[in-house]
Amino acid sequence: MDNVLLPYLNANDGRERQQHLDELLTLRASPLIRNVLLRRLSFYVSAQGRNEHNQDAEDLYQEGMMRVVQVLSQLRTSAGINIENFELYVSRVASNICTDFLRAKSPARTRLKYSLQDLLKRHKDFATWRRVIVESWG
């Protein structure tokens, strides 16, 4: 388990637990989600989770925060969930939200993309390469 989560998980009373949850969300999760939205979709969201000019940006931000809260509450009750790197986990959640948004926004593009990938995989005269993205978190 990531050490960042231990104070929240080991909190004895509800008030202390809520304080640790607020810190996790405000100091850790929110900046990561905002950064992924900006990087992947060019959606700006303020530190308060607002964008007066783009409702989609606010909705995606809120969905990311909601998913993180749900997982954190499940961590307290389920022994089967383990998050080794909280920052990486939050970034992946936000990235998945962006991917889902793009798929829903243009399903024809998504179908075309997967059809082309399938064609290139099956045809012996073509080769495909996977693009590897390495990011620095430091």
Description:
The chain has 138 residues and is mainly alpha-helical. It has one domain. The chain contains 5 helices and no strands. The chain has helices at residues 6-9, 14-41, 55-77, 86-105, 107-122. Helix 2 (14-41) crosses helix 3 (55-77), helix 2 (14-41) crosses helix 4 (86-105) and helix 3 crosses helix 4. The model has no long low-confidence stretch (mean pLDDT 87).
TL;DR?
66% of the residues lie in helices and 0% in strands. By secondary structure, it is mostly helical. Helix 2 (14-41) packs across helix 3.
Calculate the mean pLDDT score and round it. 87
What quaternary form is this? single chain
Note the run of SSEs as H and E: HHHHH
Give the C-alpha Rg. Answer: 18 Å
Unreliable runs: none
Q: Would you report the number of β strands?
A: 0
Tell me the overall shape: globular
Measure the end-to-end span.
20 Å
Given helix and strand content, the structural type is mainly alpha
Query: Largest sheet, if any?
Result: none
Number of DSSP helical runs = 5
| Overall structural domain count | 1
Relative helix content: 55-70%
- DSSP strand content: under 5%
